[in-house]
Amino acid sequence: MKKGKLNDFKAGDSIPSLQLAPISRTTLALYAGASGDHNPIHIDSDFARSAGLDDVFAHGMLSAAYVGRLLTDWAGQEQVRSLSVRFTGITHVHDAPLCTGRVVERFAHEGETHLRVDVQCANQQGEIKITGQAVVAVV
Fold this sequence. Notes:
This protein is α+β, with helices and mostly antiparallel strands. The chain has helices at 25-35, 45-50, 60-75; strands at residues 18-19, 80-87, 98-109, 112-122, 128-138. It has one domain (6-138): Hotdog Thioesterase (Thiol Ester Dehydrase, Chain A), CATH 3.10.129.
């Protein structure tokens, strides 16, 4: 993991990772309240079991928000030009998300130097739950 000024990063460099605490039922309830997404599959264990699942699981957008936090912790909110994600797996209650990123390209666009960064969020077993790509401006 490389730390430093954005201008120091080049293709192949890893950005600082973001390790999060395990997802708790409280986390899910708080996120439901903050996001307005009260789908019972995320907060009601009985409902989740009736749907054939072992337990509730995290909102996909919660994990996406963690990926956003990975980027803003590293580069700052004002530097993020775009972020796209793809959901590849379910983040279960008690999973401990680890968000990582790697610079894949340095390029110029409309007078700014940009970094294209591949990002992902995985659980403690290394199972990838989100993949994505971001563009960050270098100032």
